[in-house]
Structure prediction request, 441 residues.
Amino acid sequence: MRNYTSKILSELKTPLVLVTMRVGGAVAAFVLSLLMARTMDPTEMGVAMTCMSAAPLATLLVTGSTEAGCLRFLVAYLDKNELSKFRGMVSFNRRVTLALGVAFIIITIAWLWMTDRASGDLSTVILLTAITAVLFSWQKIASVHVMSLGHVVLAMAPSSFCRQVLLVLCVGLWILADNPLTKEVVASSMLLSVIAVLILQVALNHRPMQRVIADKSDVADYSDYREWTKVGLQLGITLLFVQFSRDLTLVFSSLSVSPENIAVLGIATAIVGFAKFYVVAINQSIAPKLSQAVARNEIDKIQEKIIFTNHLKFWPMVMVLILFLLLGDEIAKIFGPGFESIAMLLPILMLEPLAMAFFGPGGHLLSMSGHQFIMLPLSIATIAVLACAITIGAHLGGLEGAAYGSSVAWVFWTVSLALFARKYVRHDVSMFSATRLIFRD
Prediction:
């Protein structure tokens, strides 16, 4: 019994650590939003939040998304003991990031010069954001390299927890010193936190990576570079909407609504993000067993898992929606004057986790059953829908319209996944099926 308990605890240790880090990072991001709302001018806060979203999005350009396929290729190379190809891909990622990073900084400086941005007050913030994006890209590729060696906690800790905590500490210490918080200070704090986590990531990577890249006499093999590039771009674009939907929402919205409204939208999306995290966590928790059931074509077990988890996700989201409707004004008061619109946005944005819960784990089922090819065009289409819906919504209804635009894109995404799952996998993963089967039984 003791050995069995020990085995369970061993299996749960890494997932629990990862969940704890992600929750801690989300809490730190929430505290940062609260500090900014309480101490910053809303217009400056909106600019700062836009830059905080633009930096991680820009990493896709700086890395060329070549690191997206690392887990697929590097793990296989290790299994086959093809260490020269492992070294080749690691070196390829670094060379691409170095070349594109230098180009990104040069283009940013040239753009600032040609548009005469130096006469305004945005040039410093934009340049700081560009440098942050380049350094963030180096941390990103270092993270995925060590993850491919099986060190998941070492890979995730700097980016999912330490960066947010360090950013809050930088901003908090600045405020405690009785200094005014400006967009330049936030951008500088963002840069300092990324420098710190990059140094931390390099230190954490040193020992695990020595086993596979220490031998300088073994020439790196770049022969698969075309495949690395192709798969990386495909996976990067496929995951763009899911991983960066909040950042995309803020960046697209910044083109149509005022910076002070971006500050409000940023806080509202951060609050709703906690509800999304719950839905994602439930989906991830059943992924191994669902994958096993799909592999064995155990139709009853697949349906059982989907029914149970759909109800486990949907009804708590309904309760959160009711909570936001009843207490939205009280939540908005926490952030002070100028953020009253948060109460209006929360129920609108809650359509996103509600749609995720109602229409079920269609994406998981498609990927596990070998129909992942549909994800790439659907992701591109959804990003286009997001951009158009936010732009049209903002022009028709301002901040509220932009929020509806974001929710429309998520409804489009989840409904499409559910329909494709029904078409290709022959499973209705939505609450319609889950409820109907319960009443039938």
